[in-house]
Prior knowledge:
Layout: E1 2-9, H1 15-29, E2 35-42, E3 49-56, H2 59-66, H3 69-78, H4 92-117, E4 147-157, E5 163-177, H5 181-188, H6 198-205, E6 221-231, E7 238-244, H7 249-262, H8 269-272
Antiparallel strand pairs: 1-3, 2-3, 4-5, 5-6, 6-7
Helix pairs in contact: 1-3
Amino acid sequence: xxxxxxxxxxxxxxxxxxxxxxxxxxxxxxxxxxxxxxxxxxxxxxxxxxxxxxxxxxxxxxxxxxxxxxxxxxxxxxxxxxxxxxxxxxxxxxxxxxxxxxxxxxxxxxxxxxxxxxxxxxxxxxxxxxxxxxxxxxxxxxxxxxxxxxxxxxxxxxxxxxxxxxxxxxxxxxxxxxxxxxxxxxxxxxxxxxxxxxxxxxxxxxxxxxxxxxxxxxxxxxxxxxxxxxxxxxxxxxxxxxxxxxxxxxxxxxxxxxxxxxxxxxxxxxxxxxxxxxxxxxxxxxxx
Length: 288
């Protein structure tokens, strides 16, 4: 036996049409020799949510079901009725492209929000606009860089037992840190951006003179800030914001103290050495 549960969140205006199409598909599916049972369940508290319970007699029967005319008719009929489905049957390319588009929209929203609030992104722990803190790497337009690592789905169970899908958005910004506080101040309060790597320095040396950047010292450590946003995909509202300000000098100083005195060698140092190696795992780490 192969048992599958397909959770579908239907757009409110399509509930009745989806229900009728799914019931007809279930009736014909139950006539297939490879299917033991096929049910359509609609949630009482939220009629836009359905669960298709599919019980197959074998793995081969699951493939045979997708070749039937009634399944293909149902698939085409309901294709535009539901919100994007994040399950194992989803088209991987479609999901990837939608995540890319979500990321583009999220980045545009971050810029808009920073302008609208007039805080330059501070409410989200970022520095999106502003002339201070030149220890934050800048792009060619002299705007502080930040990385939008993902806008990905996350399933969870709501307070009434219903299944919810939220979008998780990770936004990370980094700031060059130095043990020498006088040099840290010099980097932060400069009136122009710096090059923090040899590759970046060579890149800007090829531009006209006024756009060239001086090579700063290699940072002693990188301080990271930003936020993780939990977003309602239907309304676009932010449910939660977990924030660490990139401008927080006290937290940066705490990391500076840890980097200088508190970072003890880990077990991996036995084999790989401990010099300038962070004891913590970091996704997308790009320190050079």
